[in-house]
Every structure is written in structure tokens, then in C-alpha cells.
Protein 1
Amino acid sequence: MKYFTLILAILLSLKYVNAFAVKNSCKIITGTIAPLDFNDDCNILNEQPKHFPDVTFFGAPGTCFSGVLTATLGHNNTQIKGMFFSGVTVNGIGLFTAASAIQLNIVKPRNHEIELGQIFTKDAISFVPDPETGRVVVLGEIQAMVEGTKRLKGGQGSFEINGDAFNGAPFVGMLCY
């Protein structure tokens, strides 16, 4: 009986230690980014000192953008709405890079929203020049979460935008918080 109690105590302690060790639950997020708009005020610059201290933005008109996204999150398809600001950076020689601040809200019945939080991402953009026009054709983008706020604080995640967000594009990713 003495050993049974000791074994039970050890098993219960291991169970609770593991329960506290698993901080984040990961959920798939899928959705669509509406076509990007130019953001001449370059709102992303407001986030630089706190969230992107190692990033240098161009900060000129035509290099900052804003947009909205709609998505579903997790196996129960929680409806998400979001707004984001992005800016092209000079970081990453040979790469087209940007950084984004994305506000995510859970949509409840009757269009009530609950703030999930903000995520801040560093982005790598793949592109090719159009041989006929010389314009850049964006093929896609990978966004890696570097920080979060509110419920997303301490979270991790990444998103892949499949196509040109300037024209609206689908995305898929994983959000762990």
C-alpha cells in the first residue's frame, strides 16, 4: 500500500508537470486577404521601435500597405476578421522582405467581435519580373510570427500567402497560443 501511494503521487505529479509545460495549443488558420491598399501614412512605422527594432523600413509612399483578412481558425472553424499594416524593409540582401502588424478578432453572432490580439510578423516575398511589362509579379509570401499581444502573447505561428496579395489571395497557416 505504501508503494502504491508513492507511485500514484509520482504519476499525478508527472501529469500536472506536463499539463503546465504545454502552454500553446496550435490551430490551423485559413482565409483570404482582400486586395492590398497603399498606406501612405505608413502606419507600420508606429510599431517599429517596440516590435521591429532590428528592421529598417523604406517608409516612403508606395512601400507601405494595409488590408483586411477573413479566416477560420481551428477545427471548429471559429470566424476571424483582421486588419493589417505592412511595410517593405531593406533587410535581407537579395530578398524582397517586409514586416506586418496584424490585428485578429473573433467574430461572434450578430457581428460582435472579441479581440484575440495582434501578431507581428517578418515576411519573405517571392516574385519574378514580368518579361513583357517589367513589373514585379508576386508569387507568394511567407510570414513568420515574431511576437503577439493579448491572447496571442508568447505565441508562435506562420502563414503562407498563395499568390499576389495586391489582387487578393488565399492564405493558410498555423497559429499556436
Protein 2
Amino acid sequence: MKKMLLALIALLTAGTLAQTDNRFVYEPVPAEVSVPQAGAVPSDAIVLFDGSNMDAWMTAAAEEDAHWEIADGAMTVRPGMRTIKTRQVFGDIQLHLEFRPSELIQGEGQSRGNSGVFLHSLFEVQVLDSWNNPTYVNGQAGAIYLQSAPLVNVAREPGEWQSYDIIFQSPVYDGRGNLSEPAYVTVLQNGVLVQNHVALQGATYTPLPEYTVRCVPYGQEREQDCSGKMPITLQDHGQVVSYRNIWVREL
């Protein structure tokens, strides 16, 4: 009996070890991505603006060359320069950009440093001067516009550079044009988490949030298929806002 018991224990132990060994995964090996120094662009990133030109961008509506003002490594939108979008289209992404509302305070609420980052050209992460500037909380900096207020307000003073690091998961549709998975977004503003894997209710600029396979993206004029990859859009809201160091990684 004792021998049988010891044999059973050995068998069970061997099975446990075998299961444990199977948890070691060796393939596929993650690709090596270098980041030379803190704040540098990852080696596998697509640079959308490095301070020298706007070749990666065009106007959202007319699809002409973009002509925002370029100076000191930044591009600045001023009233009438028009909303722009990337020439390249994207699905799931990691997006980094830095923005700076004008140091000249004019107006209040939504009239101070207003712009926006439209993921998929449909879902706006609000850009605003939210330093000592009360407004509706789902419209302040770091908000998913009209859908989700930021967890905290980490806005810096007007004229100071700020950053967004955004993880975006694009919506998924089935073969019949029905939504299978909504879009999700995580946002860090100035290194602080302000949106934590938020499920987006739909487009943020339409009268009510909606998901549709056919749509007219923000700032554009032509109806198109919006179920696949889409551009990233930066908004001209009639106010002065600067951007720099914009890059994206496809996920």
C-alpha cells in the first residue's frame, strides 16, 4: 500500500511539473525596439511631425497640402488654417504628441486654447487650456469630448508644453456591418492617467454618439466607409494651439 501511495504521489507530482513546464513560452520572440533616451522616438514609430515639415498631413475636407505655421520645432494652428488629417490611415495605435495652448489668455471656458485630437477621425480627445478655467468637465483637457471626464485635472499653465500618450483600440464590425466591439481609449496627460481603457459610446461630434459603417468623419465632407483604418485628425477650432513631437506606433 505504501509503495502504491508513493507511486501515486510521484505520478501526480510529475503531472504538475509537466503542466508548469508548459507555461514557459519561447515563441514568437518580441521584436527589439530601441529608445535611445528618455523621451526619444521609438525605433518602430512612424513620425508624423518632427518640427521640419507637414508632409504627413493634409487638410481634412479638401485634402490639400496642410499649411499650419511652423516655427521652433512646432506647428501652430491659427484661426482659418483649417482642420488637418494624416495622409496615412491607422487602426489600433499608440499615439504620442505634445501640445501648447497660447500663453495669451483670451476668453474663458471652451474659448481658451481649444483644439482636439480625433482618433479614427471620429473620437475626440479634447485639447483645451484647463488651467484655472472652469467648464463642463467632459469638455476640459483630457476628456473624451462629451463622453468621459478626465480622472484628474493635470493641466499646466498657459504657454507650457503638455503631452498626451494615447492607446487606442479601433472599433470592430462584423461582416454585416454590425458593431462587434466598441473603440477603447487610454490617455495619459503629462504622464498621469486621465482615461483608463474607456469604452467609447460612438462618434463624439455627431448630435448623439453613434457607430455607423458609413459616415462623414469630423472635418470632412464626403461620406465613406468608416469601418476600417482611418486618419488621425487635428482640429482647427478657431484658436491658437501648437503641436510638436508627434509619432505613432501601429499595434
